[in-house]
Write a structure and sequence with these properties.
Family: Belongs to the janus family.
Number of domains: 1
Strand content: 35-45%
Largest sheet: 6 strands, mixed
Radius of gyration: 13 Å
EC number: 3.9.1.3
CATH superfamily: Janus/Ocnus
Function: Exhibits phosphohistidine phosphatase activity.
Strand order of the largest sheet: 1-3-2-4-5-6
Organism: Taeniopygia guttata (Zebra finch)
GO molecular function, one term: protein histidine phosphatase activity
């Protein structure tokens, strides 16, 4: 699982994100990853890209929910908010903990606000 990065998000802007659980088939090792991009019009577009990539590496994927990320690299701030109509709201507190590993010097906050 070390080959898979915890976080892959756009370097700037506001965009959709999903929280994905990776697991080896039959149980065992699992971990959650964050993926987000402006290129996705809908949350399922992100999952449709991530799922085949992870399957090639031998993982099963489950989308735990989604939302939006506002990434301001200049001010070193990330805000996690909103929800996914299709997947429901991700646990933003879990997302923030994962983001903190990658962006340790950032101010990272979350809320249930829609905008």
């Amino acid at each position: 699982m070390a080959a898979v990065r915890d976080v892959e998000i756009d370097p700037e802007g506001t965009f959709k994100y999903i929280l994905v659980r990776l697991q080896r088939p039959g149980g065992g090792e699992q971990r959650d990853i964050v993926r987000g991009t402006k290129a996705a019009e809908f949350h399922n577009h992100i999952f449709e890209k991530v799922n085949p990539e992870m399957e090639k590496l031998g993982y099963e994927c489950k989308c735990l929910g989604g939302g939006k990320i506002e990434h301001n690299s200049k001010d070193k701030k990330i805000r996690v908010f909103g929800l996914s109509t299709g997947y429901g709201k991700a646990d933003h507190s879990v997302t923030v903990e994962i983001l903190k590993k990658e962006y340790a010097d950032y101010e990272i906050t979350w809320s249930d606000d829609k905008k």
